[in-house]
Amino acid sequence: MDLFRRVPQLFVGLFLYGVSMALMVESDLGLNPWDVFHQGLSEVTGISFGWIVLIVGVPVLLLWIPLRQRPGFGTIANLVVVGFSADFALWVLPMGEGIPAKVGYLVGGILLNGFATGLYIGSRMGPGPRDGLMTGLAARFPRLSLRLIRTGIELIVLGAGFLLGGTVGIGTIAYALAIGPLAHLFLPLLTVPERRRGDRTVRLPDPDAHPMPS
């Protein structure tokens, strides 16, 4: 019966995650590493930001195959919903004109991103393509810490995105500092409990293992 909560929670979380991405894009003050890459590709190709998010997710998902990762329902939903919701939000959001509006978009985007992360991961429906790549590499190379693998991946995509023209700025730093504490705050509050039959054991996801659902 918990599917009646988990499925709506998954889709609400993914939709809000896309909106949070759009808010940070409109702030023009800096994006998280993957979105710097997405924005850079969008600038170079002329393809919309949301479509780039979806397109990039496909080869990332294919990298799961040699890592023996299995996508869940949430993985496929992530691949589709986040990009479209980001494009929709970019279409309806007014431009952030002036520093107060830009800062408001940035702060709102980061806070909403943390909340959406808690909803999406807390639904326990499967990791997003980029999260699965990270956890798959960690499983394949157990001598490397998850944090080290995450940092390495994000530095690579951040550098590539910057070279392509993606926005790196104070928002990039603010996101890096804030997303961990926000995940620690929202994940325990929003995770659907996983109970074993015959007892009341509840297992929650590790916030450090799921930095972002994009």
From TrEMBL:
Q: Any idea which UniProt keywords this protein has?
A: Membrane, Transmembrane, Transmembrane helix
Q: Does the keyword Cell membrane apply?
A: no
- Transmembrane as a keyword of this entry, yes or no, is yes
Q: Which InterPro entries does the entry link to?
A: YczE/YyaS-like
Superkingdom of the source species:
Bacteria
Q: Where are the transmembrane segments?
A: 7-25, 45-65, 72-93, 105-123
Name under which the protein is recorded: Putative membrane protein YczE
